[in-house]
Design brief:
Helix content: 25-40%
Order of helices and strands: HHHEHEHEHEHEHEE
Strand order of the largest sheet: 3-2-1-4-5-7-6
CATH topology: Rossmann fold
CATH architecture: 3-Layer(aba) Sandwich
Number of domains: 1
Number of helices: 8
Shape: globular
CATH class: Alpha Beta
Radius of gyration: 17 Å
Number of strands: 7
Mean pLDDT: 97
Structural class: alpha/beta
Strand content: 15-25%
Largest sheet: 7 strands, mixed
Length: 220
């Protein structure tokens, strides 16, 4: 098999097998996923279980202490990140929706993570811009409004310590990134950031087909 053909297309059954053979069965997260699913179609904003596991592994592997999440929703990904931080670690969560993040706060409390997490209800670009230039970040997860992805990336990158990681969600956008007929503002914003990162000499990056596509960026 040629290298460019070395991938496995997932069926629903194969994806189920994949999830069952990772450490993706946390009871509290499963309960949160069920409560989020009851919100209806909007529940699709929640990350997949295997993505949360991967994020926690990466944060723990680099010894992350200072983390930021841009786009918190009901708090699933925040739990995955905060659990991976040491006792003196801290996660700053940026969101604008008080209703959804109220669910997050309940589950953070139950997970014993409230002391590690600060929630800032304000436009994320304002929160990021207000951080001191010397604020050293270890780990960032970007999963919010797509039109601001480039702005979030730049604001975080300049505050990352060398070898820190930025994870960017929805980079495949349901496959629409390669559909030239889709010229929506969100799709064009994702394409633009994908193209930028592919040629950004400040970083090393890989795009992986986890859930809706996840780019892992390491600052050089």
């Amino acid at each position: 098999m040629a290298a460019e053909e070395k991938f496995t297309a997932l069926t629903r059954e194969l994806h189920k097998y994949l999830v069952e053979h990772g450490h993706n069965g946390d009871p509290l997260l499963a309960e949160l996923a069920r409560e989020t699913a009851a919100l209806g179609r909007i529940a699709g904003m929640q990350i997949a279980a295997e993505q949360g596991t991967l994020m926690g592994i990466l944060a723990r592997a680099i010894g992350a202490r200072s983390a930021i999440e841009i786009g918190t929703f009901t708090g699933y990904s925040a739990i995955c990140i905060a659990r991976a931080l040491p006792p003196d670690g801290h996660l700053l969560c940026c969101d604008v929706n008080a209703e959804w993040t109220a669910i997050a706060r309940r589950y953070w409390e139950r997970a014993g993570l409230s002391g590690k997490i600060t929630l800032k209800l304000a436009p994320a670009i304002e929160t990021l811009s207000a951080l001191p230039a010397g604020h050293a970040l270890d780990f960032v997860f970007i999963d919010a409004d797509k039109v601001n992805y480039r702005n979030y990336y730049e604001e975080c990158l300049k505050r990352m310590r060398p070898n820190g990681l930025i994870l960017i969600d929805n980079v495949l956008w349901g496959g629409n990134v390669i559909d030239s007929r889709d010229q929506s503002e969100d799709t064009r914003a994702i394409r633009a950031l994908n193209d930028l990162i592919a040629h950004d000499q400040r970083v090393e990056a890989v795009m992986i087909p986890v859930s809706d596509g996840l780019t892992v960026v390491r600052k050089k």
